[in-house]
Amino acid sequence: MIVDCHVHLEWKNLGGSEDAKNILRAMDKAGVDKIFLFSPRPYKYEIKKYVIFKKSQKKQRESIEKVAKIVAENQERLIGFAWIDPLLPNAKNEVERAIVDYRLQGIKMIPNHWYPYEERIFPVYAKIEELKVPVIFHSGILHTFNDSSRFCRPTFYEALLHFPEIKFALAHMGWPWTDECIATAGRFRAAIEDAHFYRTALEEEQNEQDTSIGECQMFIDITPGTPRIYRTEALRKALVCLSEDRLMYGSDATTTTPGGMRVLKQFLERDKRIFSEELGLPREVQEKIMGKNAMKFLEK
Question: Nearest CA to 6 among 27, 31, 35?
């Protein structure tokens, strides 16, 4: 099973397809079974010397409604994620509306002039944790928003340690901070290992058993990002330092017609070659990265 965990729905006026049949047709052509489909960017925009994106309650609601309408056409293959702007005054309510009212299955966020560790964002994290849904964050260089890359360093997400029940993934392997992204995942893994160590010591002292400590909450979304010349080595490092259980395949395709969805096939074929020919990964490892881990990511 092939699951692409990173596909963007685009607004129709920007060339996007609002037809689920077109999206499913492109998936079939690429050999992709399921996708995580992100709602369109929840911003209004102005074009001057560059594009300026601004907060908009109206666009946030339209964004959620748009992806919900499309995934309703085939909920087995189209898995809806709501792109949330956490700076909106009622952002946590939009999270609840997306998950409870529209039955989307996850949240997408991009730090557009906010840092992931800011406490003003914490109520949104708390709502996500309460609803038990996963989050995919952008990490690394950011091409879409004016001068926002400075907000997207992987270590900034260490604040998610305050919300241990949230499963989250950092997209693009944090490029160009791929080593920092891998190190951040190691930090979250160490937190679990430390918890197990102290829990074992406590159990021995109190003669009790408690298995409530779960798995590492952080995944890495290996969506490009990484230029081809760096990609094989970045993936090799991630596999050695972490494990195949923490990596999820993604393409960063967009539902533009026709070019954006061609990426589904192009990047899938490229990464399959890297996994098989350059990294020599066994089939069972490739199956985890290409689909099984994404489905595990969705589990509550």
Answer: 35
> 104: burial class by Cβ within 10 Å (0-12, 13-18, 19+)?
buried
Cα 107 from Cα 128, distance rounded (Å): 8
- pLDDT tens profile 99-126: 999 999 999 999 999 999 999 999 999 9
Q: What is the pLDDT of residues 63-97, one digit of tens each?
A: 999 999 999 999 999 999 999 999 999 999 999 99
Q: Quote the number of domains for the chain.
A: 1
The one-letter amino acid code at 295 reads M
Radius of gyration of the chain, Cα coordinates, nearest whole angstrom: 19
What is the mean predicted confidence (pLDDT) over 127-150?
93
Domain that holds residue 143: 3-298
3-state helix, strand, coil split of the chain in percent (to 5) is 50, 15, 35
Residue 202 corresponds to which tokens in the numbers above? 């406590």
Instruction: Tell me which residue has tokens 């996007």.
Output: 16
pLDDT of residue 45: 74
What tokens appear for 103 in the block?
């039955």
Taking the C-alpha atoms of residue 89 and residue 91, their distance in angstroms, rounded to an integer, is 6
Please give the pLDDT value at position 213. Answer: 47
Residues facing 7 on adjacent strands: 37, 253
H or E stretch at 54: strand 51-55
Cα dihedral 296, 173, 257, 46, rounded to 10, equals 120
274: CATH: 3.20.20.140
Phi, psi of 97 (to 5 degrees): -60, -45
Helix or strand run (H / E) with residue 20: helix 20-30
* pLDDT range class, residue 201, cuts 50, 70, 90: very low
Does pLDDT of 202 surpass 60? no
Helices 20-30, 57-71: axis angle to 10 degrees equals 60
Residue length of the chain: 300
